[in-house]
Write a structure and sequence with these properties.
It is an enzyme of class 1 (oxidoreductase). This is aldehyde dehydrogenase (NAD(+)). The protein has 489 residues and is of the alpha/beta class. The chain folds into two domains: 274 residues, 3-Layer(aba) Sandwich (Aldehyde Dehydrogenase, Chain A, domain 1); 187 residues, Aldehyde Dehydrogenase, Chain A, domain 2, CATH 3.40.309. 38% of the residues lie in helices and 20% in strands. A seven-stranded mixed sheet has the order 14-15-16-13-12-18-19, with helices on both faces. Strand 3 and strand 4 form a beta hairpin. Helix 2 packs across helix 7, helix 4 packs parallel to helix 6 and helix 10 crosses helix 11. The model has no long low-confidence stretch (mean pLDDT 96).
């Protein structure tokens, strides 16, 4: 086993902090202890907020030229690169992720996202003139109308366990390049990997207070970071249930809130693309064990071919191997903990109670006595009222539904509280794209997919507020100011 990151303390305003309590980090692949990390005392989390507030108000970071911030952040990313081996090993150990996912979907994608975001920010205009009405020019004495995009202030970034590093990159790099100060709070389930950002901040010479990384075992620190008057914005990725609580906690101080929440995305196979369904189903569970908010866990196929698809998907899932990351032949690993496995079990049972059938899987795989494993599971359900078709399971479970025609497929796909992502497959690109335009969701992939620093992602409905990545992801960390300049009369 590769050596994981050695740091066990939190990074608060330029200093490393060790608390009296420790948090045991468990390896979900075998239930062993990865290590114990020091829990940040609540007063130190508040100090992180106050020092972030000071650093922003004094302009030690925000007032630097953008090119200088960019230079420091590239050095910051260089340190992350230097930590490659230990960081990837840490992600594998604390999240039970296959090495390929940790390497490609988190490390490489995160670095590419970070560097491209810096370049994108530098290419954008952050101050520009507005058209001025003739009456204001002539009678009002107005000379100039200016629109400025300025940093929002102090940002709390709260990240999930399933993509701790990539989600941190999506939040802290655009926030920092825009001139904000940030307090990062990773999930208590996977806190070790995020400590690399404290090391990088120290190595790159970020001014004290500009970036802190705090670790906690519960939620008291997160609640402070969503309610403290010194915080201007909360950026959170996680469940819709927690997102609702964050909105309530942020409301008294009217903070800006960006939320990427749950999903129950649909993948629609038009009649000329049904043969691709088995491959699309594999993508739902492979590498992530279904632990992805954008996972297209509702498969919609023509009703007269549903039986054929259920059989094909079941055969594909039968070929997938469940096992630990140490097994190079394993296609999917464990879910994060016992509660996540119990949730998958509960929804399989609910699916059956409501008339659904388990076509494949549905339980714990044989031969894996330790670790939080769950079989890739195919559920054949009658309609979209089944709980397994409506609720986010966040495990390796796919639900297959039949539709009568394209209008019915769109109706079923949109019949959801969520709207984070979606997929449409069809040989006729015009027809497939027409379906994509009708879906009420923040992103739709037609026959393909793309994760890009230049393309925004985010949710409709209860899948979230705001966007990450792209110009919209940078603007999310900025306020808009209008300056009207006229002659003194």
């Amino acid at each position: 086993m590769e050596t994981i990151l050695s740091e066990r303390r939190s990074y608060v305003a330029g200093t490393w902090v060790e608390g009296d309590e420790t948090l045991r980090v468990e390896n979900p692949a075998d239930e062993s202890t990865v290590t114990e990390v020091s829990v940040t005392p609540l007063p130190e989390i508040e100090r992180a907020v106050l020092e972030a507030r000071r650093s922003f108000d004094e302009g030690v970071w925000a007032d630097l030229p953008a090119t200088e911030r960019a230079r420091i952040l590239h050095a910051f990313l260089d340190h992350v690169v230097a930590s490659h081996d230990a960081l990837v090993a840490t992600m594998v150990a604390e999240a039970g992720q296959p090495t390929m996912f940790a390497e490609n979907a988190q490390f490489q994608a995160g670095l590419g996202l970070g560097r491209a975001t810096i370049d994108l920010y530098l290419s954008m205009r952050h101050e520009e003139t507005n058209p001025v009405p003739v009456d204001d020019l002539v009678r009002g004495g107005l000379k100039l109308s200016v629109k400025r995009h300025e940093p929002i202030g102090v940002v709390s970034a709260i990240t999930p366990y399933n993509g701790a590093i990539i989600m941190a990159f999506q939040k802290i790099i655009p926030a920092l390049i825009a001139g904000n100060s940030v307090v990062l709070r990773p999930s208590p389930l996977t806190p070790i990997s995020s400590l690399v950002f404290g090391q990088a901040a120290e190595a790159a010479g970020l001014p004290p207070g500009v970036l802190s990384v705090v670790v906690e075992a519960g939620s008291a620190g997160a609640e402070l970071l969503t309610s403290h008057p010194g915080i201007d914005m909360v950026s959170f990725t996680g469940s819709t249930a927690v997102g609702r609580r964050i909105l309530a906690q942020a409301a008294p101080t009217v903070k800006q809130v960006a939320l990427e929440l749950g999903g129950k995305s649909a993948q629609i196979y038009l009649p000329d693309a049904v043969g691709k369904a088995a491959t699309g189903a594999a993508m739902v569970v492979a590498m992530t064990a279904g632990q992805a908010c954008v996972a297209a866990t509702r498969m919609l196929v023509p009703a007269d071919r549903k039986e054929e698809v259920v059989e094909a998907v079941s055969q594909t899932y039968a070929r997938l191997k469940v096992g630990p990351p140490s097994d190079p032949s394993a296609t999917l690993g464990p879910v994060i903990d016992a509660a996540a496995r119990a949730r998958a079990e509960r929804y399989v049972a609910l699916a059956e109670e409501h008339g659904g059938k388990v076509a494949f899987g549905g339980g714990r795989p044989a031969g894996l006595e330790r670790g939080y494993y769950f079989e890739p599971t195919v559920l054949d359900v009658r309609d979209n009222t089944n709980p397994a078709a409506r609720e986010e399971i966040f495990g390796p479970v796919i639900t297959i539904l039949g539709y009568t025609d394209v209008d019915d497929a769109v109706r079923i796909a949109n019949d959801s509280d969520y709207g984070l992502s979606g997929q449409v497959y069809g040989a006729d690109l015009t027809a497939a794209t027409a379906v994509a335009r009708r879906l009420r969701t923040g992103a739709v992939n037609v026959n393909s997919g793309m994760f890009s620093p230049y393309a925004p992602g985010g949710g409709y409905k209860q899948s979230g507020l705001g966007r990450e990545r792209g110009t919209e992801g940078i603007r999310a960390f900025q306020e808009v100011k209008h300056i009207a300049i006229g002659e003194l009369r």
